[in-house]
Amino acid sequence: MRVDEVVAVDHEGRKFLWVDIEAPSKIELEALADQYMLPFHAVKDCLDAEHFPKFERFGDLNFIILRAFDDQSPSDSDSIQELTRKIAVFESESLVISIHRREQNFFGAIKDIWRTKVRVGEDCKSHIIMLSIVAGVIESYRAPMEVNRAHLEAFEAKVFKHSGDTFEDGYFLKRRANSFQQVIHMSLDLLPSLGKVYSDESSQIQDVKENGERIQYLTREFHESISSLVTLQLSLQSHRMTVGSFRTNEVMRVLTIVSVCFMPLNLFTGIYGMNFEHIPELKWEYGFLYVVVLMIFSVGVTLFLFMRKGFFEDQNSKV
């Protein structure tokens, strides 16, 4: 466990402390709960790595769980648990305790900002720190939206160029879009509760809400674009299968005509190829010419029948 006293103020009788705790064990969390008199079941929630965002009040103590984008998540992550990291914050008038498993770049930046404010003598208020953490968590989703846009463009190129495993890519991006949309929606749902508790900071909460809604719009646009591309991908795949089936039918149509035309010819050769001694046309002077004309006539009749049935018409004109 790493403990960082981000802000420690003891000035003119006013005490304020912000303690940031990274990667605590269960035993260490229980010790912290005893030290700062934290609710046991809230501390228990801190141990649950898959907990979704929520806000609770315990008398004068406020407790919030947030999920920020994990800038160290693998590139193939597509679930909320894989894409995000949980941050739990306890806040009272003179105390802020933040608990998380791993340091995030945006969170380190927030701590640096507040260290600077303390050095220049700016007053520190616990609920302002809480709201700055909420704002930072929501803002952390802006960068991955740009990455998602690049993924979307690459997937769109694959769909139209028919290259790569587009089914697997489409499923991955749709799962990723769903995860971002859900977690940002759950984060924004906390703001009305925060607005009731921190009514004096309605302006700052409104700014956080507006920024969150802009990012939510990007996630919704990403989700709708991916859904449309996946649908288009299926349509194109169906179209390619239809074209392939049509070409196969065309080949089979030609083979059918050729095969049927040869059937009477095979009949004639079979008859005149029999080993009978008395076949009249065998010794006839015009027997060969007679059989050839008969064969041509039978082929002509066969082709005429196919023509009557529309076998030689352009099949594209019927579609």
List the SSEs and their pairings.
Layout: E1 2-11, E2 14-22, H1 26-36, H2 40-47, E3 54-58, E4 61-69, H3 80-83, E5 84-92, E6 95-100, H4 105-119, H5 126-139, H6 142-161, H7 166-188, H8 191-197, H9 202-272, H10 287-308
Parallel strand pairs: 2-6
Antiparallel strand pairs: 1-2, 3-4, 4-5, 5-6
Helix pairs in contact: 1-2, 4-5, 5-9, 6-7, 6-9, 7-9, 9-10
Outline of the structure:
With 319 residues, the protein is α+β, with helices and mostly antiparallel strands.
Summarize the structure in words.
With 319 residues, this protein is an alpha+beta fold. Among the domains are: 1-137, Beta Polymerase, domain 2 (2-Layer Sandwich), CATH 3.30.460.20; 258-318, Up-down Bundle (Methane Monooxygenase Hydroxylase, Chain G, domain 1). Helices cover 61% and strands 15% of the residues. It contains ten helices and six strands. The protein has a six-stranded mixed β-sheet with strand order 1-2-6-5-4-3. β5 (84-92) and β6 (95-100) form a beta hairpin. α1 (26-36) packs antiparallel against α2 (40-47) and α5 (126-139) runs parallel beside α9 (202-272). It starts with a strand and ends in an 11-residue tail after the last helix. 21% of the residues are buried. The model has no long low-confidence stretch (mean pLDDT 85).
